[in-house]
Amino acid sequence: MHSTFHASQHGPTLRQRLAANGFDAVTMLVLPAALFLVLLFIYPFAFGLVLSFEPKNTDASWLANYSRFFADPFLYETIAKTLWLSVPTTLINLFLAVPIAFRVRLMRNQRILTAILVLPITLGTVLVAEGLLNYLGPQGWLNRTLMTIGLIDQPVRLLHNYWGVFISLLLTGFPFTFLLTLSYVTGIDPALEQAAATLGAGAWQRFRHVYLPLLMPGFAITFCLSFVQAFSVFPSAVLLGAPAGPTRVISIAAYQAAFEEYDYSMASAIAMIMGFVQLAIVVAVLASRGLFYRGPASGAKG
Q1: pLDDT in tens, 124-164
Q2: Which of 248, 282, 284 is nearest to 82 (CA)?
Q3: I need a surface site. Which of 22, 61, 119, 221 has the fewest CB within 10 A?
Q4: What is the SS3 assignment for 155?
Q5: 302 Cβ contact partners less than 8 Å away, ≥ 6 residues apart
Q6: Is the pLDDT of residue 210 over 60?
Q7: Cα separation, 171 vs 130, whole angstroms
């Protein structure tokens, strides 16, 4: 009684004042994550953005780096080359992941098969590139096998060009796309499909009118995350592609500006352009979700 009277006499404590302003114990747990975000994302991004407007040549305009990039075909064509790699591989991985995820969700040994399908993600891009060099090279297993059985007379060139990087992105990107797709597919209540089947809907009609509208928001997020991963391709483009030709992606241009020309301002400008291109694609995809489905995904379990 005495302590309560004493506290009321001196007003609310600091903890009570913080709680009244929304800073309770649960909110305070978010602070380490917010600090981590500021230190590892917001601050480097802001520093790079400011640095991109400070060209190496101090007498040049503050937009000199961006003007140089879009005036040089050897630089700005890297955007199209990167998109030409990342968009097709992301779409193919998504199209492959959907039917496989629908099949896997009905299997008893789902965990074992899922572990096998996601195995490439544990190897890393460099190890996958080394394996492809041994498998798809001129003297690799594939070419030797095809030549032995007489299907080809000379080795098929699948490395140090567009296709080497393309195959690598498929292998390394599929596990990530598949796991995301499987989580969305298994999250839809099977009773909805059963009800549609009871009403006479075929397999394609059930997928088109029941599953697809509910899965489109998830597909959009899966596409965005997989696309960002593929757009940042670097090791595969160097080890399996032609870094000075068809696989000179924008990350290679940023690397060369930073560590070959030692022009960190130009490298920051290329990185900013790279980020804004990704942001434009992501915003366009997320904005298009409303064309397929509006409202909450009420068909999801839980």
Answers
A1: 888 888 899 888 888 888 889 888 888 888 888 989 999 99
A2: 248
A3: 22
A4: coil
A5: 187
A6: yes
A7: 13
188 strand-pairing partners: 300
Q: What is the rounded distance in angstroms from the CA atom of residue 46 to the CA atom of residue 69? A: 20
On the 0-12 / 13-18 / 19+ scale of CB atoms within 10 A, 49 is: middle
Give CA torsion, residues 10, 13, 14, 15, to 10 deg.
-170
Q: Which amino acid is at 132?
A: L
Indicate left, alpha or beta for 150 from its phi (over 0: left) and psi (-120 to 50: alpha): left
**Distance, CA of 234 to CA of 30 (rounded, Å):** 33
Structure tokens belonging to residue 224: 């965005």
**Structure confidence by residue, pLDDT tens digits, 220-257:** 999 999 999 999 999 999 999 999 888 999 999 999 99
Contacts of 257 (CB under 8 A, 6+ apart): 263, 264, 266, 267, 270
| Residue carrying the six token digits 């080890």 | 239
**Model confidence at 302, in pLDDT bands (50, 70, 90)?**
very low
User: CB-based burial of residue 159 (10 Å sphere; 0-12 exposed, 13-18 middle, 19+ buried)?
Assistant: buried
pLDDT value, residue 22: 62
Distance CA 230, CA 279 (A): 14
C-alpha to C-alpha distance for 64 and 128, rounded to whole angstroms: 39
Confidence check: pLDDT of 272 > 50:
yes
If pLDDT is split at 50, 70 and 90, which confidence band does 299 have? very low
* 106 has pLDDT over 70: yes
